[in-house]
């Protein structure tokens, strides 16, 4: 749990970013490219990347980010500077301008939790040539993995903002449930590690992310501008796209497969896990695995009712089910 402590003036200084941060998106997209289950809603992106992407550039970027921003308790904050709010060029300039003392300290923290290869030594020492090569590689990776999908990403961010930022700052914080729980004056954030962050009048910057999944992520250094990057709500985007009739569902529906299509159909107007198991003649554990995937894909919602959980189809789930019939 991350506990963010608000004090005088922090609510007024809290804001939600108008667009994704390009460096954070690169870090998260690398995670999505290398994990076993990247979520069904990202499957069309993955399919297109693997079919049409620049393989050499993508593999090179993935290798680079796997070392510099590994999964785990820490990766260097200099990779995601606040200048990312002003776009890719400003962010890369900030990386090249990182003070040598900071690079040394952050690379040491990285090495303490994840041993680094020898090729990172010039970066840790602040070598101008090494930093220039790093930012050039990041620019190429961004051009291959993020930039071609800007329209889709920008629309998703706009939709997320419209839903979250309509009722003032406190309404915004309350609307972050279940990712975050606003208990004034503390914002509790679902987080992989236990820590406290005191804003001390600096306010909080909330940054939506298209490629972040499950839990938000914050900068490691509490002295840096307080920032929390959170996964945007993909189902809102699908609702908007379905309403406008601009989204072709066939490719995504084909990814469901017969078994998950059957689970989605068996939900009907709503069903518990045990009811689904009886309807399908399957074990409750097998059904639970499928409903977890469908829920993370934005096709089902799950609500606990006593000792049972009730599954219901979302608008996207109903539309996809119709497209497979």
Short summary of the structure?
By secondary structure, this protein is an alpha/beta fold. It has helices at residues 22-34, 43-52, 55-68, 88-96, 100-113, 121-124, 128-145, 150-164, 168-174, 234-244, 250-254, 257-266, 273-280, 284-296, 315-324, and strands spanning 2-5, 15-16, 180-183, 186-189, 195-198, 205-209, 217-218, 227-231, 271-272, 300-305, 308-313.
Q: Which blocks of ≥5 consecutive residues have pLDDT under 50? A: 244-249
Instruction: Please report the number of helical segments.
Output: 15
Count of extended strands:
11
Radius of gyration: 21 Å
Structural class: alpha/beta
The number of domains is 2
Report on the structure:
The protein is α/β, with parallel strands linked by helices. It has two domains: 2-231, no CATH class; 248-324, Arc Repressor Mutant, subunit A, CATH 1.10.10.10. It has helices at 22-34, 43-52, 55-68, 88-96, 100-113, 121-124, 128-145, 150-164, 168-174, 234-244, 250-254, 257-266, 273-280, 284-296, 315-324; strands at residues 2-5, 15-16, 180-183, 186-189, 195-198, 205-209, 217-218, 227-231, 271-272, 300-305, 308-313. The strands form three sheets. It has a four-stranded mixed beta sheet, covered by helices on one side. A four-stranded mixed beta sheet has the order 2-6-8-7. It has a three-stranded antiparallel beta sheet with strand order 9-11-10. α1 (22-34) crosses α3 (55-68) and α12 (257-266) crosses α14. The protein is globular and about 65 Å long. Residues 244-249 have low confidence and may be disordered.
């Amino acid at each position: 749990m991350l506990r963010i402590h608000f004090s005088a003036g922090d609510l007024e200084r809290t804001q939600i970013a108008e667009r994704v941060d390009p460096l954070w998106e690169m870090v998260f997209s690398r995670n999505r490219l290398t994990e076993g289950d990247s979520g069904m809603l990202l499957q069309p992106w993955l399919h297109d990347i693997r079919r049409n992407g620049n393989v050499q550039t993508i593999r090179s970027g993935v290798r680079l980010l796997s070392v510099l921003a590994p999964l785990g308790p820490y990766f260097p904050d200099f990779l995601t500077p606040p200048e990312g709010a002003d776009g890719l060029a400003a962010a890369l300039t900030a990386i090249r301008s990182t003070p040598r003392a900071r690079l040394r300290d952050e690379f040491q923290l990285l090495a303490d939790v994840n041993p680094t290869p020898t090729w990172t030594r010039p970066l840790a020492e602040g070598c101008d040539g090494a930093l220039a090569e790093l930012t050039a590689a990041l620019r190429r990776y961004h051009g291959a993995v993020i930039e071609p999908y800007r329209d889709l990403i920008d629309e998703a961010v706009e939709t997320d903002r419209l839903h979250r930022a309509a009722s003032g700052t406190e309404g915004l914080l309350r609307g972050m449930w279940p990712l975050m729980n606003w208990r004034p004056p503390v914002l509790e954030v679902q987080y992989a590690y236990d820590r406290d962050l005191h804003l001390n009048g600096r306010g909080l910057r909330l940054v939506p992310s298209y490629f972040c999944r499950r839990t938000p992520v914050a900068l490691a250094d509490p002295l840096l501008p307080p920032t929390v990057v959170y996964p945007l709500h993909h189902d809102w985007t699908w609702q908007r796209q379905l309403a406008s009739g601009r989204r072709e569902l066939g490719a995504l529906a084909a990814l469901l497969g017969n078994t998950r299509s059957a689970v989605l159909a068996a939900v009907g107007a709503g069903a518990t896990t045990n009811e689904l198991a009886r309807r399908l003649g399957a074990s409750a554990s097998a059904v639970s695995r499928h409903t977890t995937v469908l829920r993370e894909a934005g096709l089902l919602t799950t609500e606990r009712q006593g000792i049972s959980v009730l599954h219901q189809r979302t608008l996207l789930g109903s539309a996809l089910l119709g497209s497979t019939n």
